[in-house]
Amino acid sequence: MGLITREKETAPCTVEISHKFESLHAHVRFNNGAVVWPGDTVEVQGPEIMAPYGEIVTEDRTAVITRASAVERLWTRLTGDFEFMELCEFSFSEEVTL
Predict the structure, then answer these.
(1) Helix intervals (H) in 6-91
(2) Three-state SS for 40?
(3) Backbone phi and psi for residue 6, each to the nearest 5 degrees, phi listed first
(4) Could you read off the pLDDT of 13-55 as tens digits, one per residue?
(5) For residue 89, how far is the Cα from the chain centroid?
(6) What is the dihedral of CA 28, 43, 32, 39, to 10 degrees?
(7) Beta strand 7-19 pairing with 41-44
(8) Prediction pTM value
(9) CA atoms within 13 A on the CB side of 26
């Protein structure tokens, strides 16, 4: 991995999509033990997976992992906490308006 260059790597993976009342999630598990680090991106190859309501769908696919450069990895570590706060929603009022 270079200072500003990126590398791509393919990895076999298992995709699990759950569309149940108790759990609505999508998980990707790498079958070869690959690890995703801060700044890396993952693209799962193949058509869209749709799980009918009340079911869990599991499929084997191939994922392309684009490794972040050293500069991108450092930037992600430095700014990651600020981006996390964007996901938080705070409310201190009792009124609900739509």
Answers:
(1) 70-87
(2) coil
(3) -120, 150
(4) 999 999 999 999 999 999 999 999 888 999 999 999 999 999 9
(5) 20
(6) -90
(7) unpaired
(8) 0.72
(9) 6
Question: By the 8 A CB rule, do 23 and 33 touch?
Answer: no
Place of tokens 């991106």: 41
Spatial contact of 66 and 10, defined as CB atoms under 8 Å apart: no
Distances 35 to 16, 27, 85, 88, 90 between C-alpha atoms, Å: 18, 14, 25, 26, 33
Q: Write down the domain spans for the chain.
A: 8-87
Angle at CA of residue 43, ends 86 and 11, nearest 5°: 125
- Whether the per-residue pLDDT at 1 is higher than 60: the answer is no
Locus of tokens 């993952």: 42
Angle at the Cα of 37 (from 32 to 42), degrees rounded to 5? Answer: 65
pLDDT, greater one: 97 or 43: 43
